[in-house]
Amino acid sequence: MPTRWCRSPRAGSPGATLRSRDRGCRYPGCTHTRFVDGHHVEHWARGGATRLSNLVLLCRRHHRLVHEGGAAVRVLDDGAIVFADALGRRIVDAPSTRGSTDAIVATHRAEGLRIGPGTAPGRWAGEGLDLGLAVSVPCASTSVREGPSTRPAIAAPSG
Ligand SMILES: [Zn+2]
Asked: Taking burial as the number of CB atoms within 10 A of a residue's CB, which of 38, 151, 153, 156 is the most buried?
């Protein structure tokens, strides 16, 4: 699939090299590898060159977030690509969820974690939902904060 650009690509654009380097959206935690766009970190209208050191692949959602949602992307002197949210807080890169989980398991073992089927057992034993309780507790909490409810009462189904 061809790489889309913020504007029409020039002849000899580095799209293939960019796809080879980034392999998908570079936004922290994003795993999208298809429908990605080449984004100019320094916008081309402000003199940003269409060269690998000024480009990053972003999926459509994150490309829009950078252009319209206030997120920022920068390339550091060492070539690292960093993102920040609209308040300027750095978004920490999340470990990739692509591929094998062997590295995660090895990390857990190295840290002494033994994660298995009994690690986080639920307390649910298969009993039916007490819908009256499930509805009345949040409603009671709301009526304490907001006063008497003007909403019609919700009857719990019987049986
Ligand atoms: Zn993305």
From this structure: 38
